[in-house]
């Protein structure tokens, strides 16, 4: 009775404290990866440039749609006038061939379109995948079979061909960036839905979910209160990896002429007409291609870093081969589960009760040379007859001679 009373009065774990501890652990693991921190800084800079595009172009004094025919040489087919594609104080990165539009203004506004379309498409994918995956895992057998077959059909559909078909039949009055984001999101959610379903089936087997079910909670209340927080880590991980993939899809669709239409700037749309100018105006091709490469690379590295930081086994992997520094870091964080790198894991402690050997001079502790246990060695000058026999009875008696 007293034990039950003490257990009932014991303080319970605060969920907010547990969440704060998990957040601190995540940030500590993420800070341990320098490549992920550099990638996060690059992504933050790109997002800041995209958001501040009107301010940056206002400082330059240009806009992305105004033509400057005097800045291109019509006799040479529209090549920009001046060195390095017309770079100067008025045009920081030069001008676009044939049209003379400011290249810096189109590049920063193109960042808004490319990043905005990729993020919007990722949001649509995550929403559909969560609804379909959780419904399939929590529904009955028929619901699971129907939703799983639909998901497999979506996964099997070729993304580029379906996107080309859908974008070609939609009227041109529909906002093109919104349409591209919707098409990518509505076609490419199948793989994420399969991941959500598998993770939900795993979470259903945990004890706290079973306890919530036994307490009388409904299915969707359990999904909202217990399952969705458990799905946060894999969703964040795969969403971070979906964004660069969607940027590449948007650039490919714009390059094929069915994505964002001119005069709206987009990195993929800029590459559509830049392939014939790589000799006369190489910056027109290199700048949008370089921006796409840096963005996709930074988002991919950041997504991999987030995956590693959210992985509960990441700490043990990161400490492999770190030597004394990893040992000191583990000791500072209170992690004593791993053995010291310079000490075998099977060593006995120095002072274990019952295992210490007595001093060498204690009687009855020296072993004989012949291998008989528990026998003392005689003095050096003793006659040979006093030596214990090499083989015989356990009581040390001598054997008779024949």
Rg calc: 36 Å
- Enumerate the strands of the largest sheet in spatial order, edge to edge or round the barrel: 1-2
Which stretches are poorly predicted, pLDDT < 50 over at least 5 residues?
1-18, 314-328, 334-356, 358-362, 364-377, 380-402
Number of helices: 15
- Apparent shape: elongated
Strand count: 2
Mean pLDDT: 76
Features:
402 residues; mainly alpha; 15 helices; 2 strands; elongated; disordered N terminus; disordered C terminus
Question: Care to describe what's here?
Answer:
- This protein has 402 residues and is an all-alpha fold.
- 59% of the residues lie in helices and 1% in strands.
- It contains 15 helices and two strands.
- The protein has helices at residues 2-9, 15-31, 34-51, 53-60, 103-138, 141-156, 159-169, 176-187, 190-204, 207-214, 219-255, 267-274, 282-310, 314-318, 323-332, and strands spanning 72-73, 79-80.
- Strands 1-2 form a two-stranded antiparallel ribbon.
- A hairpin with a 5-residue loop joins strand 1 and strand 2.
- Helix 3 crosses helix 5 (103-138), helix 5 (103-138) packs parallel to helix 8 (176-187) and helix 10 (207-214) packs across helix 11 (219-255).
- The radius of gyration is 36 Å and the shape is elongated.
- It starts with a helix and ends in a 70-residue tail after the last helix.
- 29% of the residues are buried.
């Amino acid at each position: 009775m007293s034990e039950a009373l003490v257990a009932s009065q014991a303080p319970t774990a605060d969920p907010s404290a547990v969440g704060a501890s998990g957040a601190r652990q995540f940030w500590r693991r993420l800070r341990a990866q320098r490549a992920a921190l550099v990638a996060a800084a690059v992504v933050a800079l790109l997002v800041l440039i995209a958001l501040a595009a009107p301010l940056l172009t206002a400082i330059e004094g240009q806009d992305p749609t105004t033509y400057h025919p005097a800045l291109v040489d019509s006799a040479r087919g529209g090549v920009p006038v001046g060195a390095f594609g017309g770079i100067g104080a008025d045009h920081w990165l030069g001008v676009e061939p044939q049209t003379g539009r400011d290249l810096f203004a189109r590049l920063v506004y193109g960042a808004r379109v490319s990043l905005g379309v990729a993020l919007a498409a990722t949001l649509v994918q995550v929403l559909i995948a969560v609804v379909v995956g959780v419904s399939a895992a929590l529904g009955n057998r028929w619901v699971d079979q129907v939703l799983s077959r639909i998901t497999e059909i979506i996964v099997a559909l070729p993304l580029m061909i379906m996107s080309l078909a859908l974008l070609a039949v939609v009227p041109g009055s529909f906002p093109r960036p919104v349409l591209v984001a919707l098409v990518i999101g509505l076609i490419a959610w199948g793989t994420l839905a399969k991941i959500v379903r598998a993770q939900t089936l795993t979470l259903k087997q945990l004890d706290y979910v079973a306890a919530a079910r036994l307490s009388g909670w409904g299915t969707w209340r359990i999904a909202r209160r217990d399952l969705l927080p458990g799905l946060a880590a894999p969703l964040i991980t795969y969403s971070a990896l979906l964004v660069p993939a969607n940027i590449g899809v948007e650039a490919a669709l714009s390059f094929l002429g069915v994505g964002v239409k001119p005069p709206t700037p987009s990195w993929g749309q800029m590459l559509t007409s830049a392939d014939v100018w790589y000799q006369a105006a190489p910056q027109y091709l290199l700048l949008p291609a370089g921006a796409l490469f840096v963005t996709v690379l930074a988002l991919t590295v950041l997504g991999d870093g987030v995956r590693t930081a959210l992985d509960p086994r990441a700490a043990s992997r990161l400490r492999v081969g770190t030597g004394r520094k990893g040992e000191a870091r583990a000791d500072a964080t209170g992690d004593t589960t791993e053995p010291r790198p310079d000490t075998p894991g099977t060593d006995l402690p120095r002072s274990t009760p019952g295992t210490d050997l007595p001093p060498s001079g204690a009687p009855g502790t020296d072993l004989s040379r012949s291998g008989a246990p528990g026998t003392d060695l005689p003095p050096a000058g003793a006659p040979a007859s006093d030596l214990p026999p090499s083989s015989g009875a356990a009581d040390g008696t001598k054997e008779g001679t024949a």
